Amino acid sequence: MSRTLASARVDMNPHQVEAALFALRSPLSKGVILADEVGLGKTIEASLVIAQRWAERRQRIILVVPATLRKQWAQELREKFGLESVVLEAKAYNAERRDGITNPFDRIRPITDPEIVICSYQFAASKKSDLAGVPWDLVVFDEAHKLRNVWRKSGATIAQALKVAFEGCQKLLLSATPLQNSLIELYGLTTIIDDHFFGPEASFRANYMVGKTGAQNLPVLRERLNSICARTLRRQVQAEGGISFTRRLSITEDFTPSAEEQALYERVSEYLQREDLKAFNPKGRHLVTLVLRKLLASSPTAIEGALGKIVARLELEQQAAEEDLDDFETGDEYEDGFDDGDEGEVERLSLAAELEELKATKSLAAGVQRSAKADALLRVLQRAMDEVQKLGGQRKAVIFTESVRTQMFLCDLLNQNGYGGKIVLMNGSNNDPDSRLRYKAWVERHKGTSVISGSKAADTKAAIVEAFRDDADILIATEAGGEGVNLQFCSLLVNFDLPWNPQRVEQRIGRVHRYGQKCDVVVVNFINRSNRADERVFELLEEKFALFDGVFGASDEILGAIESGVDIERRILDIYQQCRSTDEVEQAFDDLQAEMDALLAEKDTETRAKLIEHFDETVAERLKGRREETGLMLDLFQRRLLALVRGVWPDARVDGHQFHHQDETYTLDWREAETGAATFFRLGTPLADHMLEAAKAADLPPARLTFEPDAYGGHLADVAALRGKSGTLTAGIMTMTSLKAREELVIVMQADDGTPLSEDTAARLLLVPAKADAPSRSFDPQALEDAVQAALVERRARAAKEDEAFYAEEQSKLDAWADEAKAAGKLEIDAMGREIKQLKAAARRANALDEKLALQREAKALEKLRRDRQMSLYDEEIRIEEEQDALLHRVEQMLEMGTTWKPLVSIQWTIQ
Asked: What is the DSSP letter of 542?
């Protein structure tokens, strides 16, 4: 793990290292749930696990995430861990299939470098056969509470498809709310990981969810969950002192559209509400309608440009589709949630009437002289900057819009109103002249450093962020442009356009309100007081989701209680489309809020606290210990890496965490690399891998080494105690295969008088500079062999003890599963017995003879079914025991340990 930690460009918090080690702990585990509270960095925890598996060459890895998070995950993996990924969606998938690639999900190919796959839940479920054809090393589900209803017989199509597609693969589930409304949801998530963790649903309900028995068994359930679910709370992390949290503060600015703007709104809205439209391809009508409504709310410039595209398409006698609305860059994220079915045949329609109507509407948009919302922006911007400055922040603002045309309109407006030369733009293409110039200057400035990634899109974005940090006062960003960027040096965010999706709003604010933010963050929103639907959307986001005030914004607890953000957007779109009056708008939003209140009221907070939240003081102490241990291990790793640098490149000059080699300065500290003063040196890069291969290929004959502790630059007490002594040392690689493959460096060291010395001392000795000469005498092969064999026996015994613990844990799990599986049959028989009694009682009460006979026949038929079930119960118990034996037998076969020894070097040593 030290290699993975040392190679990451991020400050690790101890709870994140703890969570990653938990996920990697057992070789028999089929996966875990990481359930830290919101704001604690589950993305970092998962990335650590991914990077570790990648370093182990287990590189068939897939992330299944909400569509809105796909690009953010890709950016995080590349920037912080140097891992390349591919976002697979319909367009890219179909293109690869056309190129002859049978299964685009399998990225381990003969010629190309492997890549991590990232896709949405909906897309993954639609391609379950392809997914099942790949032997995945790791499957990561972000926002995994989307899968918690997998136990249902209906209504969980996506979850059930993904469970089948990834059966048998190791899984990592990320969710702050694995238990939201009922214990059965937690049961559902465990079945995604391992069908043999709990027994059937009926026995789970009987054991843990019914009456006094369920309450009494909660400690048992908690004990069982300890091996599959880990959760850290914010207050525990604060107690440990690792993370401090700033607040977010809200400013709202009202505006009232002009008569021209209101007329434009009413005309476009009335047009979109008509059911007989011919202008749009039926397959994508809902999505086109959504985009047009968002552009209408953005600015007259945005809706004018969109209408121009549609008019141009209709003049060709073709229907418009979502690809015509490229001004709204994130439209591809809605492909799964707004699919209106098959296209069918597109007719060559007579669209003359609609064409003229849209031309007239476009002219109306072009005639709007001023934007009331843009005027509100000019009013509030200075006031908001003043507030930020009072809070200790810089007079900088990031302004988000959903439209590229609105972005350009705002740029011109602000340039004309006192902000000239202090604005940078960021969108999906970053192809404007100013961005191209800034990219060119940035490349020249960082030429020859590791700051340049080689990806023009990523580097252009980095150049714009740097320009905003160092030179500009305002960044105007679109949704696609702002994905994955860190703007923590800014603490003012302006939502010029407010998304309907609470997850999207949270992601925007998360660009500034994140780790490393030193100041409280101010969030500015605009409210159109003449549009009740717009007001209700803001109230929903502000009051129900608590997005704009407080320390953490929308919690996963709240977001997890609703359906996906796209579903929320679709519900809101339906309100805009169907409601013709203010009263209808009020009632529709009241109904939506009542549904959400009911969902939130159902959340079982108390049970979740009892099961997966550990309150004892030892948690904070353990995290403190993990911080110290991680620091020590990283320091040791870096010392060893620098020692290897000296050994392979004798000309290298080492200075602290830096070294100079072939006119280049390298650093092992990623923060130093961020400044551009040195290149980040980490394993996995071509230069470092070349160094490793050179070291492995070196011919190392026996030698005599004279170690010089005074030249080390630090004090090693155990090494210093051996001054004036000499002896022998041999090192080699021991490979063990059992429950998990182990490849360990074994160092055997002894003094000339035969006294064995600890391996820790030997490892520290090898960090000390030494002079090499030919051996002064021949080695005693038998003595070396005896010492090596003794060390290998000790290693095997240690590994066997560890394996025995894993085996005992697996056996205990399967015993519990078998007991519950057997109990399920008895529960079914008992339920039949109760139903038979009820039928017989009903028959006795029946007055009509035909009713009495029918109930008696039904009771007799059920009695026969119960007898048959009783007869089959014995066979079923035998089958369960056989399945349990087979599972344990596979584990027992894995326990058979095989070992090999590969000697590397033998030396005589003397310590001056």
From this structure: I
Q: Amino acid letter at 184?
A: I
Q: How far is CA 544 from CA 37, 495, 593, in A?
A: 19, 18, 8
Distance separating alpha carbons of residues 75 and 83, to the nearest angstrom: 9
Decide: helix, strand or coil at residue 69.
Answer: helix
Coil, helix or strand at residue 663: coil
Please give the helix or strand (H or E) that residue 817 lies within, else none.
Answer: helix 781-845
Give Dmax over CA atoms of the chain in angstroms.
111
Count the neighbouring beta carbons within 10 Å of the beta carbon of residue 238.
13
Judged against a pLDDT cut of 90, whether residue 174 lies above it is answered with: yes
Spatial distance between the Cα atoms of 800 and 739, rounded to a whole number of angstroms: 9
The H or E element spanning position 581 is none
> What are the start-end ranges of the E strands in 711-786?
726-737, 742-751, 756-757, 770-773
**Six token digits for residue 632:** 């020590």
Residue with tokens 């607890």: 557
The CATH architecture of the domain made up of 374-554 is: 3-Layer(aba) Sandwich (3.40)
Over the stretch 467-483, which tens digit does the pLDDT of each residue have? 999 999 999 999 877 66
pLDDT cut 90: percent of the chain above it:
41
Secondary structure (3-state) at 379: helix
Q: How far apart are the first and last CA of the chain?
A: 34
Q: In CATH terms, are 2-243 and 374-554 the same topology?
A: yes
Phi and psi torsions of 791, nearest 5°: -65, -40
DSSP for 431-483, please give it.
Answer: -SHHHHHHHHHHHHHTTTSTT--S-HHHHHHHHHHHHHHHT-SEEEEEHHHHT
User: Quick check: helix, strand or coil at residue 739?
Assistant: coil
The CA–CA distances, whole Å, from 295 to 71, 271, 326, 403, 433 equal 23, 15, 11, 7, 24
DSSP 553-567: -S-HHHHTTS--HHH
Q: Is 500 helix (H, G, I), strand (E, B) or coil?
A: coil
Q: Is residue 601 pLDDT above 70, yes or no?
A: no
The helix-helix angle for 218-225 and 201-208 (nearest 10°) equals: 130
CA distance 21 to 15: 10
Which tens digit of pLDDT belongs to each residue from 694-737? 998 888 888 999 999 988 877 888 999 999 999 999 999 999 98
Determine the residue type at 88: L
Q: Reduce the DSSP state of residue 658 to 3 states and report it.
A: strand
Please count the other Cβ atoms lying within 10 Å of the Cβ belonging to residue 320.
Answer: 25
SS3 of residue 27 by DSSP: coil
Architecture of the domain made up of 2-243: 3-Layer(aba) Sandwich (3.40)
Tell me the CB-side half-sphere exposure of residue 89, using CA atoms within 13 A: 17
Q: How many helices (H) and strands (E) does the chain have?
A: 35, 23
The tens digit of pLDDT for each residue in 484-530 reads 677 889 999 999 999 988 878 887 888 888 766 789 999 999 999 89
Where do the structural domains in the chain lie, given as residue ranges? Answer: 2-243, 374-554
Amino acid (one-letter) located at 112: T
Residue 685 neighbours by CB distance under 10 Å? 15
Q: What angle do CA 700, 702, 708 make, to 5 degrees?
A: 90
Closest CA to 44 of 84, 1, 77: 77
Tokens of 711: 């030249």
Question: How many of the other CB atoms lie within 10 Å of CB of 824?
Answer: 19
In eight-state DSSP terms, residue 685 is: B
Verdict on whether the full-model pTM lies above 0.70:
yes
Rounded to an integer, what distance in angstroms lies between the CA atom of residue 126 and that of residue 106?
Answer: 16
The C-alpha atoms of residue 506 and residue 46 are separated, in whole angstroms, by 20
Helix axes 565-578, 259-273, angle to 10 degrees: 100
Measured in residues, the chain has a length of: 912
Q: Could you report the per-residue pLDDT of 414-435, keeping only the tens digit for each? A: 999 999 999 999 998 888 899 9
Number of other residues whose CB lies within 10 A of the CB of residue 812: 12
